[in-house]
Amino acid sequence: MSSNSIADVKVSAGSVRHGVVPAAGRGTRFLPATKAVPKEMLPIVDRPAIEVVVEEATRAGLDDLLFITAANKQAIEDHFDAAPDLELALRNGNKTKLLESIERYKQYTRIHSIRQGHPQGLGHAVFQAYHHVGDNPFAVLLPDDLMHAEDPVLQKMIAVREQIGGSVVALLEVTPQQATAYGSAAVTNIPLETNGLGDVEGLQEGDVFRLDKIVEKPPVDEVLSEYASVGRFVLDPKVFKILETLPPGRSGEIQLTDSFQRLIELPADQGGGVTGVVIRGRRFDTGDKLGYLQALVEMGLEHDELGADFRKFLQGLDL
Ligand code: G1P
What we know:
Blueprint: E1 18-22, E2 43-44, E3 47-48, H1 49-59, E4 64-69, H2 74-79, H3 84-92, H4 96-103, E5 110-115, H5 122-127, H6 130-133, E6 138-141, E7 145-147, H7 153-164, E8 167-173, H8 176-179, E9 183-189, E10 208-216, E11 227-235, H9 238-245, H10 256-265, E12 274-278, E13 283-285, H11 289-302, H12 307-315
Parallel strand pairs: 1-4, 1-6, 4-5, 8-12
Antiparallel strand pairs: 2-3, 6-11, 7-13, 8-11, 9-10, 9-11, 10-12
Helix pairs in contact: 3-4, 9-10, 11-12
């Protein structure tokens, strides 16, 4: 993941223009660090995690992002806003590179933000986007899930939606124990020769599945397969109608996963059907302390300025 300028990225006039970034969670898995700092603002080397996700959305051709935030999360909005005093100080000090780094937000997809109020789960968070997104397909990017730029899974998912319609979720191969922390899916492979999937850049045979069933965080003996849904989704707007009346599910929360089960049961001509695309590249759960450390090490090694010295440091460790 490079911190190079993305000014040269051409925003495509693709079919999916809206993105929703739920960022209202309390970050309890990362306390005490997240007591006063939003988990989305924890740095991946020198950039907050959420900036990496916004860059991914920009590269995927989304031209409008809606953050769903909460009361103590203002730092997120500040990060994507002008900082006149700091800009002036850096300009006066001829600190051009640093100035560029804090002005990079101007190259990203346009950002809006609203508050969730009383959070009632991920499904409830996504439903807050209804009046903003309207009757358009949209992407959801969970900022805890950091995708390595080498595997542009969101682009592939958008292309799959263009070929097949319906909704698309990212799938990760997991152990049964790991599956208990995710949406667990029963799946049927879709060969690439069907539905024009062979034309989608970067897809391999065995990457695309029809979802037959999905359950949120099942106990280990009820896990449906080795595939779990993780934090990238491309959703048909029909999901809003479902979320509007969806009863609470696992943990008493309105679960996005339960809306996927409804979409699975809905005929294709009514916006139904859910397809899964397997993530083949690296993915980090930065809301988890170990996942965050792994992201830091890998991104540190790849960092333009620090990578070589950091590698030397690690090689010198007596492990
Ligand atoms: C959420 C979803 C779950 C999904 C996961 C992906 O869970 O509810 O279905 O598999 O994100 O990271 P959370 O991690 O917010 O508890």
